Amino acid sequence: MTKTYEVLKTAAESIGIEQTYKDTSGLTHYTNPATAAKILEVKGVRIDPSRLNFDFSVIVVSQAELPETIAVPLPVGTNLTDPDKLEAKVIMSRSDQSGDHTATYESNVEIDAATGSAQVVLPYPEELSIGRHDLQFVVDVNGESFKTGIILFVCPGKAYLPDELKGDGRLAGVQLALYGVRSKNNWGVGDFGDLFGIIDWAVERLNVDFIGLNPLHALGNKRPFNNSPYNPSSRFYRNFIYLNVPAIPDFAISTKAASLMESPGMKRKMENLRNEEHVNYEEVAALKLEILREVFRSFMENQGQSHLGNDRWTDFQDYIKAEGVYLERFATFCALEEHFANMPPHPKTWGEWPEQYRNPESAEVIKFQRSNEQALLFWMYLQWQLDEQLKNAQDYARYKGMLLGLYNDEALAVDRNGADFWAWRQYFHDGFRVGAPPDPFAPDGQDWGFPPPDSERIREAAYEPFLKKLRGSCKHGGALRIDHVMQLYHLFWIPQDGQPKDGVYVKDNEADLLNLTAFESNKSKVIIIGEDLGTVPFDFRDRLMAKGILSYRLFYFERDLAENLTPFYEYPGMALVSISTHDLPTLAGFWTGKDIEIRKITSQLDEARVRAFKEERTRHKAKIIERLVNDGRLPAETAHAAWESEFPTDHLHTAVLDFVLRTPSKLVVINQEDIFLDLRQQNLPGTTWENPNWVTKMKFTVEELNSQHEAVRYAEKFKSLAQAAGRGIKRH
Fold first, then answer.
1. How far is CA 471 from CA 56, 228, 229, in A?
2. What mean pLDDT do residues 290-302 have?
3. Residue 583 has what pLDDT?
4. What is the rounded distance in angstroms from the CA atom of residue 329 to the CA atom of residue 236?
5. How many Å apart are CA 408 and CA 405, to the nearest integer?
6. Of 418, 585, 399, 393, residue with least CA distance to 475
């Protein structure tokens, strides 16, 4: 029985709808669920009738805990009488790699008295392997036949973990914001060309086995509201701003693109953007699009439809076919957004488009797609090239000897004004916003502004939207961080007209989602890390780790009720450990209290709360020094100097790195800001225009990482500490 039926049953009983009656001949009749839904609506309770009509159900099971039986639903409204005397003959058919299979069963019919929904219970077909199985059933009840189906996912018992990390294996990595990477060649934002240089540095200077990246999702590329990688336009597709344009094969045959890029005006723009203090998303995006259009034009002229049989055109078509309707809708949104932005009154969001274009399935949108095929192909082409370049980077990282390579990040949110919400609104609950309740780092709670998912519709779609998102995030990487992994259990819903204090938690289908995460993890051979910070449900971390999903632990947060830091040797093995995150102060920022001062400047804290935060920070720093000394990481004779210094001393920096690296946790990732003691943090939660978020560039350029004395010294320190802690694999 689906949750929709459970809600229907409860609602019907509460207002007195009788579920059965007996006619004059003694036959029992069951209330039709659709009729019950209409009566409820008249009485002020709305249940979507379309959700009562289905011709298949979805079952997700773990191979570690296979059920003894499966229930096969019969069509809603089936007129069945006296269920105790009814028997069903069921023929099950399935197709897999070993061919077509059929099996015949005899079973009693079970009818739910509350809804009239009927099902037959069959023994679980144990021969099913890990994977998705589409099972078809023909059910014969008293000579009347019904056809129905089940989509059955058989999932591994645990998420993927490579052999090298089983037992005592432990690895180290470096985390950075790709958009903030500086180099002599990029156009004012870090790109996939820079990523190759970062891989060389990470392997040769740090000897790490993975590189953590910010989410690479597609953005609006407009400051300050549409440049957060954690509030993307689409989680299915990536931001073209990361393309290394000259590396696209078609650039080499586009004389116009090459001459445009070499023109004095274009060179001057690139130089200016490289020299800006912060990433200028709007201008970089405009610059890249101008040249990318010429590259695409060259591709179509030399590799397009007129060159059928050409390998690159075939590869492009294969990519489009594999991505299907998801890519089509994303490209349609991008083309429509550009179309209307160039027309008065220049709408800023799709909610301001003419109404007929707000529905991706409308006749007007379909006509637009047919009339603007080249525009759609352009946006599809960019995604194809992003996919190719990210693959090349991952292949290069593995070639250089990294065990994992790229450690990708999947955002929780989607922008209400973005492509995913326009294209797939049926999978979201409008009228609510997701956030977080108050905690020490956000005393007023957090309002993230995006709509929560419609869990039942996603389930009824055989979890395809969830799997598509997860599959894309796992692609071209060795590890994946799932932002706010508590989403698999529940989310904090805030009413559209309310504040975080008005929010409530709403549960999701945790068991199914955890099993499906293990399914995709093993299929892609990708380690899953669940960001489980903040208010965590009881035992949820244990359930994650039992499922093979690594917990996410921060040096700042691992404290007991007396505020004592957890000893390094008590950290869990099934975890990733770091010092800080993009939303928290760096080690240098934490020690100097820079984050508190910024909160004061941005009016997040009044004078009284500033004093309270500074007092708490002083206690926290004292506890840090105490723990580092007690655990033998900070020499006692250097502790006083570390306490007196406003900025982290070299001994304190070394001790914190050493502490984290020596934990028994499988993975440690250190932000590049904490390797280089950079004061700046990437994001200050609760601010947009008040603070320069998601635009901070690295302290050193890619070239300086290998030549600047300070950069080399910090890298050598990290490398020696990681090696002494036993992190890493031997490279040939």
1. 23, 22, 18
2. 96
3. 94
4. 11
5. 10
6. 393
3-state helix, strand, coil in the chain (%, to 5): 45, 20, 35
Length of the chain: 732
pLDDT value, residue 82: 60
CA distance 292 to 304: 16
Q: Tell whether the torsion through CA atoms of 225, 227, 230 and 234 is positive or negative.
A: positive
pLDDT given at position 127: 82
94 or 8, higher pLDDT: 94
Token representation of residue 283? 């201008």
Contact 524, 471 (CB under 8 A): yes
What CA dihedral angle connects 365, 371, 376 and 377, to 10 degrees? 150
> CA 388, CA 242: separation in Å to the nearest integer?
12
Joined together, the tokens standing for residue 302 give 């030399």
Residues 269 and 150: their CA atoms lie apart, in Å, by 57
Spatial distance between the Cα atoms of 251 and 292, rounded to a whole number of angstroms: 8
CB 164 within 8 A of CB 527: no
Does residue 45 surpass a pLDDT of 90? Answer: no
Report the pLDDT value the prediction gives residue 27, as an integer from 0 to 100: 57
Percentage above 70 pLDDT, the chain: 89
Give the dihedral sign, CA 661/666/672/678.
Answer: negative
Mean pLDDT value across residues 382-405: 98
Question: Strand (E) positions, 548-599?
Answer: 551-554, 575-578
Strand arrangement, sheet containing 504-507? 446-447, 432-436, 490-495, 504-507
Distance CA(472)–CA(236), nearest Å, equals: 6
The torsion defined by the Cα of 179, 181, 182 and 187, in degrees rounded to 10, comes to -30
Confidence category of residue 73, pLDDT binned at 50, 70, 90: confident
Residue 298 CA to chain centroid, in angstroms? 34
Q: Which pLDDT belongs to residue 72?
A: 87
User: 110: which strand partners?
Assistant: 119
Q: Are 518 and 158 in contact (CB under 8 A)?
A: yes
- Would the pLDDT of 111 be above 80? no
Q: Burial-class residue 662 by CB neighbours within 10 Å (0-12, 13-18, 19+).
A: buried
> Measured between alpha carbons, how far is 568 from 95 in angstroms, rounded to an integer?
51
Residue 732's pLDDT is 47
What is the identity of the amino acid at 63?
Q
For the ranges 39-43, 357-361, 396-400, 678-682, the lowest mean pLDDT is seen at 39-43
Q: Which bin fits 40, alpha (ψ -120 to 50), beta or left (φ > 0)?
A: alpha
Residue 3 predicted with pLDDT over 70: no
664, 170 contact by CB (below 8 A) = yes
Residue 539 CB contacts under 8 Å (≥ 6 apart), including other chains: none
Q: Is the pLDDT reported for residue 226 higher than 70?
A: yes
Q: Which two tokens stand for residue 193?
A: 């060309």
Mean pLDDT of the chain: 91
